[in-house]
Amino acid sequence: MEPRKLGQSKVRISPIIMGTWQAGKKNWANIDDAEIVKGIRAAVDAGITTIDTAEIYGNGYSEQRVAEAIAAIRDQVVLLTKVFSNHLKYDAVLEACDRSLKNLQTDYLDLYQIHWPTGSWGYELVPIEETMSALNKLKEDGKIRAIGVSNFSAAQIAEASKYGQIDTVQPPYSLFWRAIEKDLQPYCVENNIAILSYSSLAQGFLTGKFGADHQFAEGDHRSKNRLYCNPENYARVQTAIKKLRPIATAKNCSLAQLALAWLIQQPQTSAIVGARNAEQAIANAETMKITLSESELAEIDCIGRIVTDELDDDPSLWDWAD
Ligand SMILES: NC(=O)c1ccc[n+]([C@@H]2O[C@H](COP(=O)([O-])OP(=O)(O)OC[C@H]3O[C@@H](n4cnc5c(N)ncnc54)[C@H](OP(=O)(O)O)[C@@H]3O)[C@@H](O)[C@H]2O)c1
User: Fold this and answer.
1) Quick one: which atom of ligand 1 is closest to the CA of 54?
2) Which of 201, 210, 227, 282 to mutate to test the pocket of ligand 1 (most atoms within 8 A of CB)?
3) Pocket of ligand 1 contains residue 200 by CB under 6 Å
């Protein structure tokens, strides 16, 4: 599959992107460092040229693991990272970017994203004009090649776009989580903004490996995923998985690959997928060889709606209430 344009920028990305929220044992997934470094390297070798990380993932730990994996091949890789909600004031953005550059052992980022809209997670409100002004400065200085946002609504992107060029948005989006299709996706199509979906496998629920009685280990935040912690949603997930299985078999691919193939054929959409090891990363890369026909897409779409038609409009994937 050909590389894709990142909005109106000159950056070109792979349709499948390696996610690194789970990178390294300081993160929630508790994956061994060597395993994840091998996984990132295997992803690139298998054609996933683009890697997504964030300063908040293990407080720089994930960025450092990415640096370790790509040290000898920086020029072959497209690096995306994010500035967190506590660093949105002008000077704080510049400092955060310098820290990420150091963690990633590079002198430029291909895409720098505002991780959450201002005021998220209880942090102080910063006018978007101020944050955008800092991002524009970083772009002028050649430290970043493009600006993106994450967890923004269409209205929030429209506001930010008054102060600079937004080339991407990173929302939760998968066959089982489609809130963005109402407003955000049409806005992105109209304004040529690339959608980089996160939790593209619904955090693993689309792999079909979690059965009806599955229990997550302590600290695994998938237990807070609204697809799982609401028993009615979870029963519908199981029903949909059962119906998707024969289609995957007929396409000679896994359920995960089927779900990702569907996703990267949606308008403007490339998919960020987290992987815990090389095997998963290589399997995810293979998705880029699968094409689904219009009738296959429609059939899969219809099955996904067994889950999504019953969800409310809240785009948030998790219920952190207790
Ligand atoms: N912007 C944001 O606010 C935000 C939020 C969340 C995530 N993200 C980004 O998006 C990335 C992906 O999201 P995510 O990690 O939440 O969800 P995801 O990509 O839907 O799921 C990733 C998990 O699915 C399992 N998996 C992956 N590939 C597999 C395969 N081929 N076969 C079987 N299992 C497989 C692995 O978990 P197990 O093996 O443990 O089951 C892996 O950790 C993150 O790494 C991060 O870069 C961004």
Assistant:
1) 47
2) 201
3) yes
- pLDDT tens-place string over residues 151-192: 999 999 999 999 999 999 999 999 999 999 999 999 999 999
State both tokens at 317: 């994937």
Measure the CA–CA gap between 250 and 253, rounded to whole angstroms: 8
Distance CA 26, CA 250 (A): 40
Topology classification of domain 4-204+254-291: TIM Barrel (3.20.20)
Percent of the chain surpassing pLDDT 70: 98
CB 233 within 8 A of CB 226: yes
In a 13 Å sphere around the CA of 111, the CA atoms on its Cβ side amount to 35
230 lines ligand 1 (CB under 6 A): no
Catalytic-residue membership of 228: no
Measured in angstroms, how far is the CA atom of residue 163 from the centroid of ligand 1? 32
- Give residue 18 CA to ligand 1 midpoint distance, Å: 9
CA of 142 to the centre of ligand 1 (A): 30
- Cα–chain center distance at 17: 8
Alpha carbon of residue 118 to chain centroid: 19
From the CA of 204, give the closest atom in ligand 1: 24
Q: Domain residues of the chain, as ranges? A: 4-204+254-291
The beta strand positions in the chain, using DSSP E, are 4-5, 12-13, 16-19, 50-52, 78-83, 111-114, 147-150, 168-170, 194-197, 269-274
